[in-house]
## 1
Amino acid sequence: MQIYIDTELWVFAQKSPDSSKFKDNAEYKRMLNFHIKSKEFLKEQFANNTISMTTHQLCEIYHALGFRGQKMEPAELMEYCNKLATNKIIIWYTISNDIITQALNLSSNSRIHIWDYVCVLPLYNDVEIIYSCDEHFKHETFQSLGPKIENPIGDWITL
């Protein structure tokens, strides 16, 4: 089965939360749960499915892991991104000018940032399921694309 996995799930899977960075133990446990569920989920998907990604999404993953919050070491980050870029079960999609125009229009009408559209529009016709924990994916513009949208970690978050 061909699927799409939203950026935040990749990020949760890679970043094990540091308890010392949390004032609230409940929030730490919530993030640890996201990490564990996302890591297991990705392992399952790599074993059983074909994953669709856009080149833009790889840039999002690189940025989120290397420049946001708890940062990966540059060498480790490059190795991880290179493994994704060369993985045989990932089908890569590029972003055309038509996709950008469509994403701009959808973003303008929905008031949802453009990045989710840029990641999904090139590939939604080819995937059966879109996996995300981003609240934006519950919006009618994503729901109307066709693929089923599922949240593998259970909690919806707003980014």
Note: The longest strand covers residues 50-54.
## 2
Amino acid sequence: MNEKERKKVKFSLIKFTKKGPFRTTGFGMIDDENLYTKSKTYEDCIRYCHKMPNSTNEFKGSFNEFEEIEFENDKGHLVNLEIENCYSLWFKILN
């Protein structure tokens, strides 16, 4: 796939949290590295996906993403915390 070439996909993305899994499904675009959805770009996740057996256009995989959050603790101090988000991704390339 060309670096600039994007393909339309149908996707299912599961984010695993302490409260349980959170599933997002829909249509988006991919290139060689990223998944682009209406609400967010998931960077560098496509390389962790592999072709599903007996399929020519379905892929799945899992990846981790780090996110920095800022919050106020009990003493009123701002605290920065880096959290790791774990995802499972399935997508089908649409023609």
Note: The CA atoms of residues 37 and 66 lie 18 Å apart.
## 3
Amino acid sequence: MYDMYAMKILTTHCFICIINLSLATKYIFIGFIGPMAKKYYCPRCKTKKVMEYPDSIECPDCLLEFDKKQIGVIPDDEILAFTEMGGFFDSFKELKDPEKAKKFFDSIMEDLEDEN
């Protein structure tokens, strides 16, 4: 009687160990390989041969780097590369000077008044 009871406990314990081992193996395997990667492409030349970084992709053909968050969300022809965004934002650096900012603002106000 005690032998049957010990066998049931041993069988249950082995079953739990096998389940734990298989789950641990699954998580280790997924950790090394990772989930299926998203397929990114270059919004300019449409090649799928891009280098993937944590937050961006780089196209070896175009030599441009793009933000991953924009791909598939913004139309491809409207996505700016990081270098293009830098050029756009750098043009506003001169507006840090209060005199230049006032001159720019005044010119916009003049244009608006001329339209009316």
Note: The chain is about 50% helix and 10% strand.
## 4
Amino acid sequence: MKNILKNILIIVKAISITFVIIFAGLLIFLILLALLAIILSPILPKSDYCLEDGDCKAGRIIIINNKEILIDKNSCIENHWDWHEKSQYCKIKNMKFYPKEIIYE
């Protein structure tokens, strides 16, 4: 009976050590992945929501149909787009009118 208990204890220890090693390896992998993301973040291109989704912040100048438009509440409402007062941005509704080019402030 003692031998069986010893064997079970040895097996339980081996399994727990294996889980600790796997967990430590996974934790190290996640830390390295986070560090890689931090290191690469300045290199990767930034997302431009105005060009991609039509979410343009107030103060930006965009070009649509060879016409410069300063994004503000008035121009947004004039063009029948959605103005978001709290966040101070304009949602350009129709994809075909998304700006092709943006002149930064």
Note: Helices lie at 2-40, 49-53, 73-78.
